[in-house]
Amino acid sequence: MGSNQETVSERVRTPAVAGLFYPGEAEVLRENVRRLLRDNPAAGAAPKAVIVPHAGYVYSGPVAARAYNLVAQAAARIRRVLLLGPAHRVMLRGMALPKAAVFHTPLGDIGLDTAAMAEIDGTHGVLRSDEAHRLEHSLEVQLPFLQTVLGEFTLVPLVVGWTERAEVAAVLQQLWGGDETLVVLSSDLSHYHSYAEARRLDEETARRIESQSPEIDGEQACGAYPLNGLLELSRRKRLGVTRLDLRNSGDTAGGRDRVVGYGAWSLCAA
């Protein structure tokens, strides 16, 4: 019995930042996400991909909610989510899949698309590492939003370290699929500048994203490696990029001396 419990435990990735970045109690979390969605509407076509921030909900939740309101429009067709975000907790070269088969949040379990994960495992710089996922918040904070707007779906989660953009683009291309697959790219923007300087820097980064210039660096966006890969592929596929929101923590919560930038974008067929 003990060994079986250990096996089950190893197959489930449990939350690392529930109760810190977002509420840890299911009903409170559910109402928090619904309120963020209700208070931050967005108009536009249902996206193939979205770029969203990943700070605590009090800081970046209103910005992320803009994108997830558009995702909700496509809930009936989306069955799989490719979720990519930067590595904050481990030094990582390449892209890490977990060994786990389930990701758990206070809102329930999300099954991973193990067949798709096996398809890319060992290719294009992809490796397996539960340690890369264990404490990583950039992916985790997206999950309650996805559970709320989509309901049932499977997940392909990739923590991205130092990686050539061509490798990220190749993985995305391999699992791009059709209308059933949504790509979610998790990234914040500038970190710890004054409010005015952050606005200037983030506006420049936003223009690079919107012109699909895949030469963003880590000072402009902590998710630069996966972001450049997505922009490389979206440019080849001739997707249009639409800005949904661009703010920073000085707009949402906290002071304006040292802020973090947040943006949300939708990528759709032009």
CATH class: Alpha Beta
Q: Architecture in CATH?
A: 3-Layer(aba) Sandwich
Based on secondary structure, the structural category is: alpha/beta
| Inertia-based shape | globular
Distance between the termini: 55 Å
The CATH topology: Protocatechuate 4,5-dioxygenase, Chain B
Report on the structure:
With 270 residues, this protein is α/β, with parallel strands linked by helices. The protein has a single domain, classed as Protocatechuate 4,5-dioxygenase, Chain B (3-Layer(aba) Sandwich), CATH 3.40.830.10. It contains eleven helices and twelve strands. Strands 2, 3, 4, 7, 8, 9, 10, 11 and 12 form a nine-stranded mixed beta sheet that branches. It has a three-stranded mixed beta sheet with strand order 1-5-6. A hairpin with a 2-residue loop joins strand 5 (102-105) and strand 6 (108-111). Helix 3 (57-73) packs parallel to helix 7.
List the helices and strands and how they pair.
Blueprint: H1 2-11, E1 12-13, H2 26-39, E2 49-52, H3 57-73, E3 80-86, E4 95-97, E5 102-105, E6 108-111, H4 114-120, E7 126-128, H5 130-134, H6 137-140, H7 143-150, E8 154-160, H8 165-174, E9 181-186, E10 191-193, H9 195-210, H10 224-236, E11 239-248, H11 249-252, E12 259-269
Parallel strand pairs: 1-5, 2-9, 3-8, 3-9, 4-7
Antiparallel strand pairs: 2-12, 4-8, 5-6, 10-12, 11-12
For the structure shown, list the relevant keywords.
270 residues, alpha/beta, Protocatechuate 4,5-dioxygenase, Chain B, 11 helices
